[in-house]
């Protein structure tokens, strides 16, 4: 049963239809003239039943498809659920009227919202279909909290899971809005199915209102972003756009134009196994050495628990194995790409000291490049960030420029030659059972994309040199 509470709306509203798990059809009124949104000044009219109710419907449908990315595989996509969601999206895109819709052999979905003006450049909107492997995405049971009361939220499926206002940045500002959570036994999947729902809802609006002037817009849904392989199979020549936007940011009205640079270190510790009854002076326990490795890594600095703002970190997040062999997965993160080499050097120094103390042990460290800071590549097309900021101002809000303490597909795409800043989709506490989305912030995402399409419709294509 979906959890909800009553809401009294006396302002200009739109109705959202909520279909509960027991088949009950409920109606939810959302005020569009909320603080920070001026429908008169922005020139927008509340969308009403025919469009905005589908934003929630789409989101609830998408999160119920399990699309957890799998790190320990070379298969692309890494999970069958991503193909399942891709198939669903292809069908919906065709029904909406997008052109050139298809899914390639790697599971990447693409289609085009045809332009209504011939002189405007082509842009692209992207979101990823996979969810993080850090929490289960199987059998997601979304909970809807209408008119959120501003207090801590106890999740009904696991009451030990509590979304605390004291630990969730910006949560107090969401009082009176509509939140969607999981039941606490899984993550929600707002990262990045909120982005998918926003793109699909915007596409529906543009295709239903062909008087809106805009250029061609490529819609692209990728796979395996959460394990750093989101753009491994993306062909930017096939996208054929001047710039792009990932819809993969937290909060509202955000424009993220800088990311971490990122590597992944796999530390393999080889010990020596023997019957424990006869292990004296012979056994080398790889599990113990893994623990020793972790204690010798920096943890009072260069750790996610201690760093913020522009400081990077080393983050061990997987430990597995037994006496003969243990493996650690460690994330290397910094806004300065050159610092990644220094972080890797720290790991190798730790390994060297342990092997010196335990001569029979072996420690192998492999570092894999994941993505790089997008900021240096966005200068190629300054309109990408400038017009995103203008679009947000058009809907009566101020753009919130952010440096992402993480990465998106846009990091890789920008490096590949397609400048791609990241826009907010209303998600919070991602990669966790405490994840939630704010419906009104998702609506802001739709409105931003509509205005962004209009602004790019007034631009002209760059001449090729």
Fold and architecture overview:
With 465 residues, the chain is α+β, with helices and mostly antiparallel strands. It has 2 domains: 13-259 and 374-457, Zn peptidases (Aminopeptidase); 261-371, Alpha-Beta Plaits. It is 28% helix and 25% strand. It is built from 11 helices and 19 strands. The protein has helices at 39-42, 52-63, 80-96, 190-208, 236-239, 286-296, 339-357, 375-378, 383-394, 409-416, 439-457; strands at residues 13-19, 25-31, 99-103, 109-113, 123-128, 143-145, 153-154, 162-163, 179-181, 217-222, 243-250, 254-259, 261-270, 313-321, 325-334, 362-371, 400-404, 422-428, 436-438. Strands 3, 4, 5, 6, 9, 10, 11, 12, 17, 18 and 19 form an 11-stranded mixed sheet that branches. Strand 7 and strand 8 form a beta hairpin. Helix 2 (52-63) packs antiparallel against helix 4, helix 4 packs across helix 11 (439-457) and helix 9 (383-394) crosses helix 11. The longest helix is centred in the middle third of the chain and has 19 residues, at 190-208. Residues 1-46 have low confidence and may be disordered.
Characteristics:
four-stranded antiparallel β-sheet, 2 domains, alpha+beta, globular, eleven-stranded mixed β-sheet, Aminopeptidase, single chain, 19 strands, 11 helices, 465 residues, Alpha-Beta Plaits
């Amino acid at each position: 049963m979906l959890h909800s509470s009553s809401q009294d709306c006396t302002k200009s509203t739109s109705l959202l239809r909520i279909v509960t798990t027991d088949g009950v059809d409920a109606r939810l009124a959302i005020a569009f003239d909320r603080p920070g949104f001026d429908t008169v000044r922005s020139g927008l009219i509340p969308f009403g039943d025919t469009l905005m109710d589908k934003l929630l419907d789409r989101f609830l449908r998408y999160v119920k498809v399990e699309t957890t990315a799998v790190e320990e595989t070379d298969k692309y996509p890494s999970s069958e659920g991503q193909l399942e969601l891709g198939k669903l999206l292809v069908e919906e895109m065709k029904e909406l009227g997008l052109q050139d819709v298809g899914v390639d052999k790697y599971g990447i979905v693409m289609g085009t919202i045809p332009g209504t003006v011939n002189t405007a450049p082509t842009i692209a909107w992207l979101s990823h279909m996979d969810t993080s492997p850090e929490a289960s995405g199987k059998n997601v049971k979304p909970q809807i909290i209408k008119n959120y009361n501003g207090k801590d939220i106890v999740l009904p499926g696991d009451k030990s899971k509590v979304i605390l206002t004291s630990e969730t940045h910006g949560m107090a500002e969401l009082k009176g809005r509509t939140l969607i959570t999981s039941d606490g036994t899984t993550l929600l999947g707002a990262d990045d199915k909120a982005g998918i729902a926003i793109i699909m809802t915007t596409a529906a609006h543009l295709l239903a209102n062909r008087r809106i002037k805009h250029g061609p817009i490529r819609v692209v849904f990728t796979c395996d972003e959460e394990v750093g392989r989101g753009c491994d199979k993306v062909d930017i020549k096939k996208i054929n756009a001047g710039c792009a936007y990932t819809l993969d940011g937290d909060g509202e009205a955000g424009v993220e134009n800088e990311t971490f640079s990122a590597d992944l270190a796999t530390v393999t510790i080889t010990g020596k196994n023997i019957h424990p009854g006869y292990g004296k002076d012979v056994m080398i326990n790889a599990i113990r050495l893994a623990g020793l490795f972790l204690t010798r890594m920096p943890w009072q600095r260069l750790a996610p628990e201690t760093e913020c703002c522009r400081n990077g970190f080393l983050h061990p997040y997987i430990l597995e194995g037994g006496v003969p062999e243990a493996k650690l997965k460690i994330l290397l993160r910094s806004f300065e790409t050159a610092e990644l080499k220094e972080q890797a050097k720290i790991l190798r120094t730790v390994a060297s000291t342990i092997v010196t103390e335990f001569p029979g042990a072996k420690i192998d460290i492999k570092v894999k490049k994941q993505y790089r800071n997008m900021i240096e590549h966005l200068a190629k097309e300054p309109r990408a960030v400038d017009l995103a900021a203008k679009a947000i101002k058009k809907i009566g809000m101020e753009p919130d420029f952010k440096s992402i303490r993480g990465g998106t597909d846009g990091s890789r795409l920008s490096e590949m030659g397609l400048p791609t800043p990241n826009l907010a989709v209303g998600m919070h506490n991602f990669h966790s059972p405490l994840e939630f989305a704010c419906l009104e912030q998702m609506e802001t995402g739709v409105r931003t994309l509509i205005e962004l399409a209009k602004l790019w419709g007034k631009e002209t294509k760059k001449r090729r040199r």
